[in-house]
Design brief:
four-stranded antiparallel β-sheet, 8 strands, elongated
Length: about 220
């Protein structure tokens, strides 16, 4: 009978432990959010995205009768969508559609805005739509990654865990940069406020001196002093 080497199962045990941790720690899969949009109105949703992060979105109009989700939608149940970057650049645009999707890689850091609007109708109608917007690690199609790379479930969870840790690290660096920017802005603001305070004090003292000089001259002219 072959003797088992001590510690031969240690690497596999660590892999199992890491995979279990990834399964427990990983957030649940995101679900599409449902919104009510009145005709002639606009609804906007924002998402903060970092530079070089991927973002994907899917949207579709929900039928007015929940008992028949596959029924044909009326012509009044259409929406338009525009996705813009923090500096106002258009990332996606669709007009009078009942469903669609978009994908882009962020070139600017900040809040990206997705604005939906419905055409005006009389009498007014309420359009219900679902919107699923993901960015960063959650935007990746992990089943396709596993199929393309021919990896098993454990390796896939470890890959997801590594991507999540990398995303958290990048988020920490991004927050640190934002903190430094805010500190520099606070220092500049405090310096400007100090100069403004000294300037205001100098103006007040100058006005008070001019008033005293004017009153003294006036009383001397009237020979009251």
């Amino acid at each position: 009978m072959a003797a088992r080497r001590p510690g031969s199962t240690a690497p596999r045990s660590w892999l199992l432990l890491l995979a279990a941790f990834a399964l427990l720690w990983a957030p649940p899969p995101a679900r599409a959010l449902r919104f009510d949009l009145e005709s002639g109105h606009t609804k906007c949703i924002s998402d903060e995205i970092k530079v070089n992060a991927m973002a994907v979105g899917k949207y579709h109009v929900v039928g007015p009768d929940p008992n028949f989700p596959d029924a044909q939608l009326p012509e009044s149940h259409r929406i338009s969508l525009r996705v813009t970057s923090p500096y106002g650049n258009s990332m996606h645009y669709a007009e009078n559609v009942q469903s669609g999707h978009f994908a882009f890689t962020a070139t600017e850091a900040g809040d990206y805005l997705a604005c939906f609007w419905a055409p005006d109708h009389k009498p007014p109608v309420t359009v219900v739509f679902e919107f699923d917007w993901r960015s960063g690690v959650s935007a990746k199609d992990w089943p396709s990654v596993a199929k393309k790379g021919k990896v098993d479930m454990m390796a896939l969870e470890l890959k997801k865990l590594g991507e999540t840790i990398k995303d958290i690290q990048e988020e920490m660096f991004y927050l640190r940069e934002r903190e430094e920017e805010m500190q520099n802005l606070n220092r500049k603001t405090n310096s400007r406020m100090a100069w403004l305070g000294f300037l205001t004090l100098g103006i007040c003292l100058s006005v008070a001196g001019l008033q005293l000089w004017h009153l003294k001259t006036f009383f001397e002219r009237k020979k009251l002093l």
